[in-house]
Amino acid sequence: MNNLLIWPVAVPLLSALLALLWPRRSTWIGVLGTALSLLAVVLVSRQVIESGAIELALGGWSPGLGIALRADGLSVLMLLMSTLVSMAVAVYASVYFSRSERRSEFWVLWLLLITALHALFLSGDLFNLYVTLELLGLSAVVLACLGGSRESLQAALNYLVLGLLGSMAFLIGVALIYAGYGTLDMAALAVAIESGPTAWLALSLMTGGLLIKSALFPLHFWLPPAHSNAPAPVSAVLSALVVKAALYLILRLWLALFDEVVTQTAALILGLLGGIAVLWGSWAALQAERLKLMAAYSTVAQVGYLFLFLPLLAALPEGTTRDVALGALVLLALTHGFAKSAFFLAAGVIMQRAGHDRIAELGGTARALPVTAFTLALAGVALIGLPPSGSFLAKWQLLSSVFITGQWIWLPVIAIGTLLAGAYTFRLLGYAFAPGEGVGPSLSVGREEIPAVLLALVATLVLGFWASAVWELVPISAYAGGEG
Amino acid sequence: MAMSVWLPVGILLSSLIPGVLIFFQPEERHRLRTWLNLLGAVIKLLLVGMLIWGVFHEQVFETRWTMAPGLEFVLHADALSVLFVSLSTLLWLVTTIYAVGYLEQTPHRSRFFGFFSLCVTATVGLALAGNLFTFVVFYELLTLATYPLIAHKGSPEALRGARIYLRYTLFGGLLLMIGAVWLHTLTGGVEFVEGGILQYANLDQSTLRWIFLLLIVGLGVKAALVPLHGWLPQAMVAPAPVSALLHAVAVVKAGAFGIVRVIYDVYGVEFAAELGVLTLLGAVAAITIIYGSLKALSQDHLKKRLAYSTVSQVSYIVLGTAIVGPLATIGGLVHLVHQGVMKITLFFAAGNYAEALGIHRVSEMDGVGRRMPGTTLAFTIGALGMIGIPPVAGFISKWYLGLGAVEAGAAAWVLPVLIASSLLNAAYFLPILYRAWFKSQSTPWPADKTAGCTRELPDALLWPPLTTAAMALLIGLLAAAPYSPLEWAELIAGREYRQ
Amino acid sequence: MNALILMLAPLIPLLLACFAYRLQSRWWLFAAALPALYLGLMGEQGSTITLPWLMLGMHLSLDATAQQFLLFGAMIWMLASLYIPGRDLMPGAMGHRKQSFLLAMAGNLLLIIAADMLTFYVGFALMGLSAYGLIWGPSQRARKAARVYLVFTLIGELALFSALLLLLVNSQSLLFAELHSESLPQAAVALLLLGFGIKVALPGLHLWLPGAYTLAPIFGVALLSGPMMKAGLLGWLRFLPLGEPLDPLWGNLLLLLGVAGVVLGMSVGMFQRDPRSVLAYSSISKMGLFSALIGFTLNHPGMAAELLPVIVLLALHHLMVKPMLFMGLDLWRKEAAAYWLLPALTLLSLSLMAFPLTGGGAVKNLMSDALNDNLAWLLFLGGIAAALLMSRFLWLLWNSKQSAEYHRLTLSAWLMVLPLAVWAPFAWDGMSVKASALLPLLSAAVLLLIGQFLRRRFDLLQQPMLSVGNSMSWRIPLLAGESVKAESDWQLVKRFRQRYLQGFARWQLMGLRDTAVWWLMLMLLLALALRN
Amino acid sequence: MTQALIYALTGAVLFMLGVRATLLRDALLPRLLALNVCGAGVFLIFVSLAYRGDSLPVDPVPHALVLTGLVVAISATALALALNRRLREMADE
Predict the structure, then answer these.
(1) CB under 8 Å to B354, separation ≥6 — which residues?
(2) Which pTM was predicted?
(3) Least confident residue range of C448-457, C494-503, C511-520
């Protein structure tokens, strides 16, 4: 049964090869491949929910030398999010790229990206993590420059270089770990790692590298241009999934592997950076003149929120309250993933229809594209953290943790961040619902509008009302030192 | 058993489902949309009827759904929620009919009615919320559902009004949420229990005071307590049915209802008095009452005058809540219903004036009674009720508030406030009535759309105000009859002060 | 059956009011008071009806007082209904007057048969507010008079409302029968005095009266001066703890205010040029007398049992005579060649002056018996006031012009009621001739002669002086906060003030404009009085 | 041991130099070169880790890792160069 674990990685990989070989049918292959990997992920999830964390040693080689795949609650949640988002984006992209000559390139890279993501979430070995991280970064960069404009190339290049630098830092951390503990298997390391200079240095290097990739303030500067200049489906996955991958790694490292190394001060520093990111990102989003740029800055802010959890998690005693906070963190990440991808897809629809995405000229959107405007509104609700979205629940728990730990400093950050989020969201909606001729005349509901609105609905309704599943899954851990 | 779980959900769904369906209707399917709306409203009315019967006989209706660890989504029907639910359901039906007539031949009706239904869903959910968490959820939902309604016309003023509304309510919602989370963290769950829960919780009193402040400021934004009332006069740019709903049922009432909930079912009124927070609240309410009336005096714009009147009147509810004692409680609670019925009448009438003759200002109303007798009759009844002239409903509220104040020994400051407010109400309502009935038309109507019609207005516009005016008269006249709002308020007060 | 009719008495006018705009005949209005008349004539005393579902529970009952008020009230209502001009009854007319008339009637009848405070209050409010429509007229001055009336009425309602709350909490019951004065808050009494004091036009609270009485249409004045004004008095009788010990402060205050009212009515009324104004001030004076009597009763609970029925009789007498005078005056003015009306009016005036062998004289006899030699000076003063004012009235009547034709119906109806009014309230046991009763009349005659002499001699009471009284009516616009259009009277006053009475007039203006100053003055007087 | 340490330290120094240049340089080519220097430093560290003392055979795992790392680094560099060329072409147009 554990062989199941190979499929979420293998299916997109094989599809990528197929798409490469058969470019004329690449759209079909891409969508189908994504759908099949969705199926694989669902099967894996069922297995995990029923019988707890599962593990697979590839090729029968024992962990240490071979490649281990592990699935536990956290990875299943991330997998589900990424596969659902990518399914929706794939449907959207099938329309978006239908007339593009680059469509076969897109689909190959797209499937590779999914492969990398799934492998990253399932990987149980630090070096494999590095490899998948690089694979992810490279395919993301290429996807990001598919738009072909000068700005997008420039941004992608910048993204690439910085991503490489981050990976290098990560890799050197991996080396230090190997030097210190003689293994790279995460399950073994979770037991072995103790507080000490090696662990310290390794953790800081790895975290530093990942911070670049997750675009935490002040290392966020590459993100807005890269995300806002990519084609819409690519921006969606970049913001929703690729950034989350780095974040997932940080969580794994901090909570499962280095849980004895992490100190309150370190967590506090990350928290402070997160706080500044929240304020700065929201403020910049409010100032943004373009829709996609606004969304990108909003990602910066949302990433900041996730980092706010770290000092709280570090301060909470192990047990239910901590699990609740952790669940909230995951829920926030998931909600953001769905909401932001929906947002970018909607932005893409508007851009295709209007030929621009200048916010001030979006009047008439609501009349011409009601479904898309609705999507923007729903996604905005999730970004602000209003009910019934998942982020509302997450924010509630975040505040609750603030009160429990007594770290009052985060209270104004959260409050101002929420108000700013409200401000930029409703600024956009105000323009979108105003009368005007900014967007062309109304056509029927297009195929490309549906995936976006579904994603937004998941963020606002499903993750709101069925969020307790998150809290049930998160404590299922494959790692001894973890929170299980 | 199943019934007791499904009834609250059913009441929510009866407006949610039509609302969602309406969103997807093309603009021109007018008839289907109307049917959906009315069907939902009637079903809701029936369900609420069942609920009323059940709650009266002390049946328990409760739905629970765990959303997150420690966070339960609870719909629970107690006497207080039934009071608010039945008000909103009844007025929703009337307002829907009115809105169908009012918005005939205007664009974006699907969107409008969709949000309209959502707005009612949120209000009903608010009423049925069984704990603070659920309340916050619906409180925010209400903000979201109302924003598009205020911005509906899409004109710069409408957008500006909506923006201001949003600024205020998001801020308020945030404070409410912070307060709610804080309290939730301290107690591990804040269920609404008649008589309150906090007096047994043994918590630090000054913390509880801070939380109270957060909650009340959060709720006070919607309840338009001075100085948090700034959005309300701006929001009157909305179409008349929206203003009617906003002022009578949905937003403003939600705030007042929340204050009632927090004081009675979270803190417990005696405990809140012990904390010393009620005096402050009472003072704020008193200031709001007077200030709103004073501002209303100087408004020439009819809807603005009504808006300031709402600011003033809704604080009657808060005032009744801030005075300890069952009689004041009855006064406050019953005003929740009475103000709704009377104010909705006034806004319907104001909408009719604008719709039929283009009248937006008081100074244009000379002699309008002769031209539109039905509408003006409804307006008159509503206005007299606001002043508190028997036997219109408003008198009953004022009576109980005053009694409660005397009983609680607060007569020295409450009675002057009530009297001053009544005088001011008279001062800004009676001139309107005077112009309408006694003066003769001095200038041509600004935009006469019904010239040459034999009837005053289409039925859908004329009957809603007449119905609500009749209701305002009847619930005042038959205040002591069984199942009247007063009876319910007494039932609630009896349960709140039971222990 | 009786209970049903009890309910019908206010209900029928109320229902008719709903369809007022369709009523084309004044007989509808006339008929609306029939149930009340029936109750007054043949109603079974003590019949009650309780409507627990209506508002907060309403209780109606018919006691002796109520029955008498109903009887005489109904007559005046019916008579007044005939005076409503025809154009208000046209189909399609807005029917303000009809509606106001019917609503006010409903309120008036309701409060008379009310057995609990709330019902009384509802009736009182209904009557008071609807009366606005009875005063309102198209002229600017009439509109202002109506507005001033409304402001006063509203203040009165609210004072009464507060008093009611205090009383209710004190005695835990709405029923009049269960009111008690134990631990009664002082504020409640003060508010009662204020609330009803406005209706009975206590000095200082009377400012609405002259304008309303001189400018309202005739049926409005008739009703205001008759049934409505007495409603205030009835309110005192119902609400005040008469017959129970109370802080003497309130009795003294009321007594003092009453006396002030008598003096005020007399002194200002004497200088009026318009017979209507004279009648208006005569009302103030009369009501002052009643108030003083009630004040006295408050301080002498032991005598309440004897005094109260007589006060009721006195009120009933005035209730009948004053409206008759107003309506007679109207007839006089409009009926061509009606010199024969003069004796009729004189007869009425004599009755009001308490001339022996008239109704007024009879009641006065009863009163002086009941008072047991107390307050003889007050009755004397009241008598002088009435005599002087009525003489002035008749004098003005004699000198005034007559004009257009009038409707036969109203005239004959008036004449039919005339004997009833003269001998109302049929207190036959008081019909006797006493020398003492003539004393005030004689004194008044002497005073008049002296006045006439002074006038001839010093030319003091020439036209300008007359306008001082009229100042009462031009003060009204000032109260409403608006500037006054120059009128001839006003010009006269200005000239007069410049010449003789600059200081005095200014003082008067300031003093009268602000009611508070009045009250302050009276408080000071009271303090002085109590010190002795 | 000391020899391995020297290698490792050299690797660390190379890494630091590379990072510094990557962050501070503006032009792409120097940055790419610096990145490769970085990579070389990391690989050097890995290789030095394989040494487990004279008596023991060399640990094969780091070698395998370095091989994989080289592949990744080369492809990344290639991609960067390709992008750079495209950018140039666009600038020329």
Answers:
(1) B240, B360
(2) 0.89
(3) C511-520
